[in-house]
Amino acid sequence: MDAQGNVQSNDTSTNGTANESEPATPTDAPFPFNSPHADVILRSSDGMNFRVRKAILAEASPFFETMFSLPTGTEQSTEKTHAPDLPVVPMPEDSTVVVGLLQFCYPAGRQLQEMTLDDIVGVLPAARKYTMDRMVEYVTPLLQRFVATSSLRVYCLAIRFQLGEDLTRAAARGFLDHPIQVAYSHITELDYISGAAYARLLDYHNRCSFHVQQLFVRYYTGIDSAWDERCWHQCNFESKKNCTYRSFENSQRVTVWFSGLMVRCRNLAKDRPSSREFSLQSTIAKALVEAGKCTFCGPRAWGDLQVFLPLLTTRIDGAISQISLDVVAEALSA
């Protein structure tokens, strides 16, 4: 296919040489891409023939609609087929990508819900190239499934292919759930976004981290209406050697075990300013062990923390929601 979308002839009799990148004997794609009623063959770069209908492709892609409206050459097939004279469109994409594109066009083969992140990464450039905008719109919500596990990759894809502010912001928010070291691990998707887009993500993380850390300095202010009833505030330290108080700048006093928990949470917020980590049992396990040394706090600590931590995480989520992320449209990357 040339730059104008014209079908190019691969007839080797005109130049005496074959395309060395193509296998000598192309293979046929499975159902539903082997129809005897097809009127065109898409041949992938790894030599698989997809017998399809022009009308179906044209309906899904203005690119193909334009291409099929132009005069085309044909390649006479030497294979035994039901349609030996079909025009052949050489595709630069491999069969995996072509299948992904055609599954969207053909309802009988649509399995997009089963696509992995790598599948989507492979098919998005081709979907943009062939102006299959409806496929892009369909795939974009699927990327939300990968925000929790691959937020940086999803952020890069959202920027690279202009997949909308909602997905971009969701990916940036999911990025807060992971150690900041993830940002300095090379992933291929980073090669396709600008340094400015990457810097905006890091700046967003930094500002969220700062504001969340502040909550663990003023964690008692307005968060818990029953603060005075919590064991870490009520405990009579004078008769409990293992549960001494620690004073804070505003004269509020809490037990050392609770203060230590807040310090650990504040340090955690430097790396992952996300509410998800602070309510995990692994985060509060040490505090519960220390509280258990006190006959007053021991029986009460777990119950009080189960009430307090959701209030704290709600405040964290509220603080993060106030932090803006600038999403600047960039030119579509190839």
From TrEMBL:
PROSITE patterns: BTB. Residues 1-36 are annotated as: Disordered. Transmembrane segments: none annotated. Residues 1-24 have a biased composition (Polar residues). It comes from the Eukaryota. Pfam families: BTB (PF00651). Residues 38-114 form the BTB domain. InterPro entries: BTB/POZ_dom (IPR000210), SKP1/BTB/POZ_sf (IPR011333). This is BTB domain-containing protein. It comes from Rhodofomes roseus. The lineage of its organism: Eukaryota, Fungi, Dikarya, Basidiomycota, Agaricomycotina.
